[in-house]
Amino acid sequence: MYSGSKDKIFNGANDNASGTTAMLTLAKYFSQKNDNARTIIFCAFAGEELGLMGSGVFVNHVKPENIIAVINIEMIGVSTFGRKKAFYITGSDYSNFSSIFKENLNYSGFSIIAEPPLSKQLFERSDNYSFAIMGIPAHTIMCSDDDDNCYHRPCDEIERIDIGNMTQIIKAIAIGSRSLIMANDSPINLPKKK
After folding, report:
1. Spatial distance between the Cα atoms of 39 and 141, rounded to a whole number of angstroms
2. Terminal CA-CA length for the chain
3. Quick one: which H or E segment has residue 98?
4. Which residues contact 165 (CB under 8 A, 6 or more apart)?
5. Nearest residue to 136 via CA among 30, 43, 63
6. Mean pLDDT across the stretch 85-89?
7. What is the mean pLDDT of residues 113-128?
């Protein structure tokens, strides 16, 4: 607990109400658009911090060969890297998912920036990993990480969220995933680097 603050509630506006908001917004957008060539499943998982519990159970009830890609969304409400309309994709060396997104976002004004050092293990610490270990190209889109001053603290409040930029990131996810949804692209896992 943080003894200097009266507020003891961890509201989690950035981690991860921002990702949940993005998922719900994208579900509404794609359901209204209703032109997808592939089935899209929208899921919110519980127990990530307890060892990827929700996603770990879910992945045992699906056939990995039926899943083309997984897009996990985390902490997109605050950009701790000082760039608007920019995000990073975790584990970008594990598949060509990031390349597909970059191609789809070409000339859109959005940027995919380099992910933080692999030593932070962001790829392995989020719900995408439950799918990745089953051989599915699965990555997380993020704008901040655990270096954020309010990460897992009571100060992770709605007032900190950059709603305008978060809205732009959600638009970028819709654009970046377009060729996946329309069955024009299928990401493939890349050989592990030694």
Report:
1. 20
2. 41
3. helix 97-105
4. 79, 84, 85, 143
5. 63
6. 96
7. 94
